[in-house]
Amino acid sequence: MVVAFMEGIDPNCRSTIEAYWKTIFERYPAEVLKAVPGMSDNDKKKLRRKLEAAGKSTFEEFQKHLSAYQRRELVDPVVSAVAVLPKDLLAEMAESLVNLTSFKRRMSMNSAETVGGPIDVAVISKGDGFVWIKRKHYFKPELNPQFFARYSGGGDASSQKTLK
What are the distances in angstroms from CA 53 to CA 65, 76, 93? Predict the structure, then answer.
């Protein structure tokens, strides 16, 4: 899903389209030769080689053109925007991409769900190190205030057990 978001097309869809066009360009020379009666075998071989070379060249040009378009119109603008995003928005973007992947997998009947549920989000930076942005707990925080009091330095010292 991240690649589809960045490049504007699902990689499997692009592969299918490219495979189809490659097959067309490979079959085309034979179809043209069938439609041209009265050619000698030698002339047919020469024409076939020329048509195959033209088809291969045209297909490669199509791939280059599509890749250049994707980079210029889809990838580069996102990369440029991401390069200047503040850390909190980068974390939000990452979480959104994971959620998008999860949603796609849930809606797709033919793929195993590999992500989902609550998502932990953290930012790692040179200046701040590791910082939680969003963190799920294995327990309900509202039912366990003593846990947060113990680790945040707050709370009454007499209510905390000391280990010996």
Answer: 18, 33, 45
